Amino acid sequence: MKKKKETIAKGIIALLFSQVLIKIIGLAYKLYLTNKEGFGDSGNAIYSAGFQIYALLLTFSSTGVPNSIAKLVAERVAIGDNKGAHRIFKIAFFTFAFFGLIGTMLLFLGAKKIAVNFLEIPEAEYSLITLSPSIFFVSIISVIRGYFNGKQKLSVTAKSQTIEQIFKTIFTIVLVEVVAHVTKNNTMLMAGIANFATTLATIVSFVYIYGYYRTRRREIGTEIAQSVNYVPTRIRKTLKKILKESIPISLSSLMSSFNKNIDLFTIVKTLKRFMSESEAKIQYGMLSGKIDTLCILPLALNVPFVTGMVPIISRAVAIGDREELNKKMNFFLKITIIIALPCTAGLIIFSNQILNLLFPNANSGAVLLQINAISIFFAMLSQTINGILQGIGKSNIPLISFSIGMILKFFANILLVSDESIGIKGAVIGNIICNGVVLIIGMMYLLKNVDLKIDKINLILKPILATIVMSLFCIFINFFLKNFLSEKINTIVSIALCASVYAIILIALKIMKK
Predict the structure, then answer these.
(1) What is the SS3 string spanning 278-323?
(2) Strand, coil or helix: 83
(3) How far apart are CA 241 and CA 84, in angstroms?
(4) Phi-psi region of 388 (alpha: psi -120 to 50; beta: other; left: phi over 0)
């Protein structure tokens, strides 16, 4: 048992380092694109428009699949049924490969209609076409990742994600440079080829992870031969079980993805009422290309814990260990809070300086970043709570909460963005409302139905105190160092010192045990 726990910890750590590396590398190519001559916020608008539609269709075939497969596999493995776990994997593999193929065809054939009629950004057509093959490959990748996550081999996911991001960055920079040189900085073609880099990187990731599975077939065969508690079931029954788990999770993820598409469908159209179309696209590009990119970074730090949490929670439920379940829920909620609070505070305090540092050629949007940073705390906590709900088999609750949040987000966009005095800020206010509602509904369910006993001191009071002290130090050190250092150096040094101080405070307050 001790060996398994150590393996889980190593897997989560591998995923954590992977996510940090992925986001750093991803930020590098995002900085490159935003600061690239001829690209900027206008290019981001085209690039993001294509990518958001791709993400929406991708949800049907893959998003949520790793967690649902991991949950089902973990339940089988927990009782020694490795044969049943592998059967689930095989059926899911062919099922989602089919769904992925359908998604690819829909996006490829409907690219022009979507770009012209729905997005009202005709330039996004090439981006949609070049992204379409990714849906098929990611669908298969997601099933393989879910299978190994359920077996608590999280490092497989970590390595495949890292490889994908590295190649995506390399392909993006190389291909965009070539297209920029040949077309003399044609924004539309540069955005299209940047999205094509995603497709190429996805294929590389597929080759790696499928190759890994092939090399482990003998080991998997041995586990299957030693399987106990296997109960033969018809393919139809197993498929029904897979879909019963994956559909609510995928639909919940669809709602989350659709929130960004609400921005895509509403912002440009609404802003055009009181500004030019080109300026409206720049406003949308500023939000989607810079603000969302920065605010997604903290969520990425939480992803490894949510990924590792689902099979752990599922295992505790499968063996009926309620004490372990409550302990794990508190642990993962605490991890989320001590990551979310300082990230929110840091983005609010250093918003203008971060944009000047990262986007010197397109540094507008500080107020947007400050407002949207507030939604980070709600988004990260709801991310963890929804993972817990998925682990205990209540995937319908996130679906309901996301649906309500999405509706409120839509009306917030329509009402607030159309107000000229609010404008684009209405979209980020809508994010806060949506994520806040999702958090409240999920937490209320856990408190009422799962008998979650919250450690108020270590879970709430101490992290808030640590964040307040860190924030005061941030303000002081930032003000003090600006007299001696340039703004960029001051920003880097101040953030590093604040992170160190926060870590020291966590240790001093004994928030985390060994």
Answers:
(1) HHHHHHHHHHHHHHHHHHHHHHHHHHHHHHHHHHHHHHHHHCCCHH
(2) helix
(3) 12
(4) alpha
Among 348, 391, 392, 350, CA closest to 371: 348
- Can you give the residue ranges of every domain in the chain? 2-454, 456-514
Alpha-carbon torsion (264, 268, 270, 271), positive or negative: positive
What are the backbone angles phi and psi of residue 423, rounded to the nearest 5°?
60, -135
The angle subtended at Cα 142 by Cα 137 and Cα 147, nearest 5°, is 135
Tens-digit pLDDT profile for residues 401-449: 888 988 898 898 888 888 888 888 888 898 899 989 999 998 888 888 7
What's the count of helices (H) and strands (E) in the chain, helices before strands? 19, 0
Q: What is the Cα–Cα distance from 404 to 452, expressed in whole angstroms?
A: 24
Closest to 49 (Cα-Cα) out of 107, 8, 136, 91: 107
337 membership: H or E segment, kind and range: helix 322-349
Q: Which of 269, 262, 313, 256 is nearest to 78 (CA)?
A: 313
**Contact call for residues 501 and 475 (beta carbons, < 8 A):** no
**Using CA atoms in the order 99, 302, 267, 274, what is the torsion angle rounded to 10 degrees?**
-170
Contact 69, 89 (CB under 8 A): yes
pTM of the model: 0.71
Closest CA to 264 of 280, 246, 282, 284: 284
Which tens digits make up the pLDDT trace of 151-201?
878 788 888 888 988 898 889 888 888 888 888 888 888 888 888 888 999
- Count how many Cα atoms sit within 13 Å of the Cα of residue 319 in the half-sphere of its side chain: 14
Give the distance, in angstroms, between the CA of residue 66 and the centroid of all CA atoms in the same chain: 13
pLDDT reported for residue 256: 66
The DSSP result for 123-150, as a single string, is: GGHHHHHHHHHHHHHHHHHHHHHHHHHH
Integer angstrom CA distances of residue 231 from 84, 242, 309, 318: 7, 16, 26, 16
**222 secondary structure, DSSP code:** H
Tokens for 177, please give them: 């440079």
Helix (H, G, I), strand (E, B) or coil at 62: coil
Asked if 480 and 498 count as a contact pair (C-beta separation under 8 A), the reply is: no
- Of 428 and 65, the structure prediction assigns the larger pLDDT to 428
CA separation for the pair 127, 193 (Å, rounded): 7
Q: CA–CA separation, 131 vs 194, rounded Å?
A: 10
Cβ neighbours, 10 Å, residue 385: 28
d(CA 379, CA 100): 28
